[in-house]
Amino acid sequence: MHRILVVDDAATVRMYHRKILSDAGWHTDEALNGVEALERIHAQDGGGVYDLYVVDVNMPRMDGYSFVRELRRLGARHQAPVVMISTEAQRRDVDAALDAGANCYLVKPAQPSALVLSAALLLGDREAARTAAQGVRT
Amino acid sequence: MNQADLLDQFVIEARECLEAIGKRLLDVEQQPDNEALLNDLFRSVHTLKGNCGLFEFKALERVVHAGEDLLDRVRHRTLAYSAELADALLEAMDYSAQLIDQIERHGRIEGAADAASMAHASALRAFVCEPTSVPQLESAAPAATGARHSVPCQDDSPPWMKRLHLAGLTSRAGLLALRYVPEEGCFFKGEDPWRLARTVPGLLQLDIQGAGAWPQGEDRAAWDCYQCNLDIVLCTDAPRAEVEAHFRCVAEQVNWYAATPDAAADTSDVTSAVANAIGCVDPVSPLLHQRVVALWNDQCDLLERVGDSAGTVLAARNAMGHLLACLDNGAACAALAELPEGVQAASLLAWARANAPAAKEAVRAAARAVRPEPDIGTPPQRSDDGSTSQPQKVLKVGQEKVDRLMELIGEMVVAKNSLPYLAQRAEQVFQQRELAREIKAQYAVINRIAEDMQHAIMQVRMLPVGAVFQRFGRLIRDISRKLGKEVNLVVEGEDTEADKNVIEPLADPLIHILRNSLDHGIELPAVRLAAGKPAAGTIRIVARQESDRVIIEIHDDGAGVNAARVRDKAVERGLIPADKAATLSDDDAVQLIFLPGFSTADEISDLSGRGVGMDVVRTAIERINGGVELSSVQGQGTTLRLSLPLSMAVTTVMVIESAGRRLGVPMDMIVETVRVPAGDVHHFKQARTTVLRGRVVPLRALNDLLALDAAPVPNEEGELAVLVIRHANESVGLLVDHFHGASDIILKPLEGVLAGLVGFAGTALMGDGGVLMVLNPKELLQ
Q: Are A104 and A83 in contact (CB under 8 A)?
């Protein structure tokens, strides 16, 4: 099963994203900020290797940009795609996310099917992607 | 998890956010230059806004969003923080709290909130708009990125076409763009422009902005909020006839622009070119396909700027592998896998481009129908690691669960009390002395565990008194501004803890006390200066624990209570006779303000003196078994001292007997128990008194007070049992028949038909299964 780490300081958003992603059939973990996310990645048990990171931008202690930069310095097995999600919808926000090393940028609130579609494509989960694409269409 | 859980979570977090915002706003006002505080404040608003977006709480989101924009500017120093700004934000947050209450109650926001939320939002936006008008879209787009967004409009396209991002939009039928500017009076014709625009068949993109400038400053009051001020631009791929039918009622308000077949063909060609290049045309789901292309371009974009980060290159490579896998493109997957392990960004990029030529600029916007917001002046959100506060990890438990635990342990405490009775029966009735001893030993063990449990559960319910104080900063700020006074609030010992049931009822009395201090206590700055005091008054709230009581003192350095005026007022109101008033010492006279119906305010002010006075405060405090004392020095200030129990869960009562009935009297009201020889009781007409240590103590027979027709029974030596209790700063003796021991009980208030009974505090279940009525001597004696 694909493992996804959801990083967001807002509990409601974490709950929302985790529900959407676990409904699509994936395992999810959560972290409240970049520091906690790195702690989870480094944890010996229960944490470790993720197949996708869904990351908020504005968080206390360590924001999304710094987290992705730190993540990209880690070993090869941690280099999974990053979906960055934030409320800002401007070009420079997309640029900032890409500058940090994120693979995809979505605007909050993400439509469930749009989030699942992007996640599925970046995970290489063909079935989930097809289901989600149909969801977006209807 | 379901929607309801998410909503509950939303409400909880929204409340936390609002509380944090309220607190931070005041903090920021104290230290406007503190970057970390500002960032923290901004983030709370930002989080709240983000959460709103998950639901259809437009009214709430509108207000919070306006607040966020405002704070973003403050944070980046393009707008100065001011008291007026804080006022507007605080008001908006108060309003948001109301909306959240609505959400909690009904799961949604009532329709009526729309107008109010717009008013709040525009009040906030007014701060932003004043210096410059709304930035123009064209000029706002950063020059550097402008080129990336080459909108494939022909030169003769109307300027409003620029508000759409047609790049990458594909359509077999060709694109149709239109601009719909509803007329000002459209609302009165029953039109709903927003709905009309949103329900356009085949809607691809929509942009909305104000048709004219929004009113600013003074003009806002005069502005007619029922006039429509909208300018909508949208783009659809439905046939024109269908769209025209949709707008048939407002046809004259719509401008049409058909994107030329060339322009449309351009973009679709590019998309299919990419599709072909990647090697897959998926008839099932063009959207899936389109999204793959967009993500592919994102990876190219990422590789372009990656620098020397091997991790990012690898991540992009992984992502591209997965994208290809989703398209079932095995050949390309294999080709990607054949690239060397440590491939450089440039080589990978070249490969990616070769496999998806020329598509990048045109298609990437397709999946991202992003509308640039009209306020593009916002600087980008960069990292702000300023805040260090980390929320304490807590388990959130519903209060009723803790209350249930408390009830259960209460029953447990009572149930265990039956063991001594059992031991007694074993010994006396069944002559089982050995068994009786074992039961007693077991009782001791169970008793200890039960007490520990009770203590632990009480700890769960303990709240810091600061929970109540939190709102005071805001209250004092608002009131003192209104009164034109300067006041500093100093809070000490806010982490002193007491039971939730003691803390929560404190809010209202404390607010009342503070209002009194602000209104009657603290003088105007000029008066203070004339009296040789600093212009700004100080109100100190100090909390501390003294043995098993929590003491809260509220001290102000204001004018103090004018004893002479209090005397006059009390006489004038007919509360005490004039001759008695004259004999009162100043200290005693000041206490008169606790009498019901007393108020010294000559004019009824907005803040205090609305007919409710200090007696309300005293009643409220006494209801939680607390006490109030007031001391005041004229010209120097007033101190109110609240003495509160740590917990109301367990009450110690003394069990007494009168006319064959056992009754409880709360221990904290009892001064002493004495036995008085019948001969030492003096009779004056109906009244009885005795002298205890040189002081005359009035005696009342409990039987009389309870309307029991029996005389107090003296013991064998002819002594009467007198329970001396404190009543209104005096001692009163209650004549009873017998004293029994003290007992810890869980006091339950009277319910149902008994609720109206005067003179009783409640009932308690005793260890032997009997019910003990607990007296409220204060009510009895009145």
A: yes
